[in-house]
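Quick check before the chapter quiz. The format below is the same one you will see on the exam, so make sure you can read both the input and the output lines.
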Amino acid sequence: MEQDEQLGEERRSNRHIPITPISRRAMLSGSAGAAAVVAIPDMFKHATSKVSEPKPGSAGAFFYIFGNQTSSALDRAVQAGSGSREGIRAASPHLVATKLAALPVKSTDGEFIVLVAKNQMSSSAELKVKVLNARSAACIAEGALTLERIPADAHLLVKPVISSDSRVVALVLSISLATNKTSVNKVDALTNKSMWIPTASWVSHHAIAYFWLDRQTFTGPYDLSDAPSLANTTAICDTSDLFLWTVEELAARSLQKGVLSPIPRLSVFPIGSGTARRSIPVPGPWPGGEPVVKLPTGEIARLVDREGRMQLYSPRTGRIRIADVSGLDAGSARPSPTTIAVRQDGRLFLVNAGFGRAVVVDAASGLRTVSVIKFPVPALAAAPPLSKAILASDGLVLYVTGPMQTGGVTAYDVATGRPIATRGLGNVYAGLYQLSSGMILAIKNSNPRLHFFTPDLEPIAIAETPLTVAAVF
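Here is the expected output.
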């Protein structure tokens, strides 16, 4: 248990500390109840895939950390680090981009990482797009787009979406402008002094621009003329179209009795165009970045209920249908989101950490649930990073961050749902990721934040980062 405790210490004097493997005796002494069952390593022979670690420069050699720099909560940045065992031990991640305007986007095949930075000036804004080779962290394409007539006090949200064939990056822009600027006189309740407070009405609209990787040039931006709309959107691309969910601003509607709430719309734009070829109402929750994925059937699936209800759109027929994924209907009131990942075998992996459930779904056979795994609710279940449970590449093992009482990372046999090993007891992890190299990365909220394990949960190293981690790619 000594080395396991050592892994959890806040050792700020060393930025990168290799860890020797835990002994079998130390493993067994770390048992802490049903949620932290530790098993003999031989059990992994039947559950964990053997991962060949890539050499530097090969696929999976790098991973990417996104988050706020601790020195400035407004400066979002990305670090890159080697994901191989040797690379993890040799060096800490290094900074590759700052002042990011949005969460990075990874291409469907995992080959590219898209970064977008923003710089707002007095009467315009500049967007810089950088596309990295995910294997080497080298920049393979970049470009800058100037948006005119964007005042300094405007709110500009950027949502990058990469096409499934990785030839173009669509930028969905939400632009909120202040109107009816004035000042109102208010009396401070504590001091009883009056003061003038500036006020304004904010009106949002959307625009689309496209960055073409082969030419490294932009087309657009195309103004959608949809003001007043809510700034939040949901978007995804396939090889030919951009699918965009928006909703009208509620305040734009008459507040008279009997007027219905606005209904979201799904607009389908041919890639490269600012004119929708189809726009239809899609009753359901307002868009706001909820999970949306492309299924192997070609349908576009948007999660509209955290218990597994999916809104499916067929690009071929233009029809929408509703389907329910079984296994997530836990009936819990915990305010935790459901995440979705599309696996290489075409199956969907859904997790709701607040429910303590993970579901594997066969998307090619009517969203049939293949496996349901239950686990104790992790610590910080609703807080970022949202990835609390990950499925091994072969689908045999589920890794989950532990509950507040024990912490650590627990591995579950997907076939039986039983825990088979736990490491890192005493460390409360906020997020969990499997790198493309197969290595496991557990995230803490304080330095040293990065804890690396092998697929067998054998500790490799810990490292510090100046970022408050929001996601890992």
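If your answer matched, good. Residues 2-472 form a domain with the Methylamine Dehydrogenase; Chain H fold (CATH 2.130.10.10).
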